[in-house]
């Protein structure tokens, strides 16, 4: 049986369109760079945490992934203020994964192997302090607090961290093995409900699979909420704020200050940087009013 080319093409395009509509919340949530061909397929080929010019970059930045929402504005404004830098490559993976990439010298995603040495690495204060020998300069530039992300309408009536130990509540929880947020959240659990709450959420509920430990929580936790796979996700306030900017159907439940924690974000300029002047310029930019205003726009706190 013969099928004309136009009929086959229409079928394939219709299939891709239908598939895309079945995944309305899938990343990338940033604006993809312009290119001759855009072949982003929701749920299959989207690579949301590799951003920009991977070939001969003039600046390479490894951002802790929970800052992915600032990248569009931050890099665009930096290029405007420092027009000599046109090719910038950014990764926004979990900070623990980025640390392993720095220490091991490479990262493979699917069939792509990346061997770039970053000029700048950003993460929480604890990890930057632990890796101090890698840097010749460090700065702090923003802070954040925790909140509870829930589906719009809060169907499980989540009111506090204590509610997370309920048997009927499914949790998307950052894995402390590579997400600094995981340890910070455990500190909040300890403040709210002591070791009993930590044991319930991180052991009992992990064992019965009602706590899901994420592989990449800054993308995964919101998706699990949006796609009905989780009832609550402890996240940074900026992450819930961003989902509401995108008009995604989520809400955030405030964690009181006496149970909450404050995370400090720091940047380190690597001793092995291959683009030393660009790295110095970006460190200066991170402390500028332009950068601070962008972080404030997306729900971070700045000095």
What does this structure look like?
This protein has 303 residues and is of the alpha/beta class. The chain folds into two domains: 171 residues, 3-Layer(aba) Sandwich (D-Maltodextrin-Binding Protein, domain 2); 111 residues, 3-Layer(aba) Sandwich (D-Maltodextrin-Binding Protein, domain 2), CATH 3.40.190. The protein is built from nine helices and twelve strands. The strands form three sheets. Strands 1, 2, 3, 6, 7, 10, 11 and 12 form an eight-stranded mixed sheet that branches. Strands 4-5 form a two-stranded antiparallel ribbon. It is globular and about 55 Å long.
Task: Give the tags.
alpha/beta; two-stranded antiparallel ribbon; 303 residues; D-Maltodextrin-Binding Protein, domain 2; single chain
Topology:
Layout: H1 5-21, E1 50-52, E2 59-62, H2 71-81, E3 88-91, H3 95-104, E4 107-109, E5 112-114, E6 120-124, H4 125-130, E7 135-151, E8 171-173, H5 180-207, E9 211-213, H6 217-226, E10 233-236, H7 237-245, E11 250-254, E12 262-270, H8 276-286, H9 289-297
Parallel strand pairs: 2-3, 2-6, 8-9
Antiparallel strand pairs: 1-3, 4-5, 6-12, 7-10, 7-11, 7-12
Helix pairs in contact: 2-9
What is this entry, summarized?
The chain is of the alpha/beta class and 303 residues long. It folds into two domains: 7-143 and 264-297, D-Maltodextrin-Binding Protein, domain 2, CATH 3.40.190; 144-254, Periplasmic binding protein-like II (D-Maltodextrin-Binding Protein, domain 2).
């Amino acid at each position: 049986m013969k099928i004309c080319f136009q009929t086959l093409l229409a079928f394939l395009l219709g299939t891709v369109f239908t598939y895309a509509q079945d995944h309305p919340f899938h990343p990338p949530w940033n604006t993809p760079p312009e290119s001759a061909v855009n072949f982003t397929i929701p749920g299959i080929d989207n690579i949301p945490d590799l951003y920009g010019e991977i070939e001969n970059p003039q600046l390479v930045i490894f951002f802790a992934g929970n800052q992915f929402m600032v990248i569009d504005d931050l890099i665009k404004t930096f290029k405007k203020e420092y027009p000599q830098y046109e090719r910038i490559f950014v990764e926004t993976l979990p900070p623990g994964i980025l640390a392993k990439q720095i220490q091991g010298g490479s990262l493979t995603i699917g069939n792509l192997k990346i061997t770039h040495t970053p000029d700048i690495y950003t993460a929480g204060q604890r990890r930057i302090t632990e890796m101090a020998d890698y840097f010749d300069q460090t700065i702090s530039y923003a802070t954040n607090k925790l909140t509870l992300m829930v589906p719009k309408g809060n169907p499980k009536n989540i009111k506090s961290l204590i509610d997370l130990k309920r048997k009927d509540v499914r949790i998307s929880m950052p894995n402390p093995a590579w997400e600094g947020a995981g340890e910070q959240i455990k500190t909040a659990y300890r403040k709210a409900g002591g070791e009993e709450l930590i044991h319930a959420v991180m052991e009992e509920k992990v064992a019965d699979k009602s706590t899901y430990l994420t592989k990449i929580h800054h993308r995964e936790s919101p998706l699990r909420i949006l796609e009905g796979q989780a009832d609550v996700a402890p996240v940074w306030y900026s992450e819930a704020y961003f989902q509401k900017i995108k008009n995604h159907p989520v809400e955030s439940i405030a964690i009181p200050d006496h149970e909450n924690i404050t995370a400090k974000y720091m940047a380190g300029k690597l001793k092995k940087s291959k683009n030393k002047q660009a790295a110095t310029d970006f460190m200066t930019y991170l402390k500028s009013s332009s950068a601070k205003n962008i972080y404030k726009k997306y729900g971070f706190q700045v000095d």
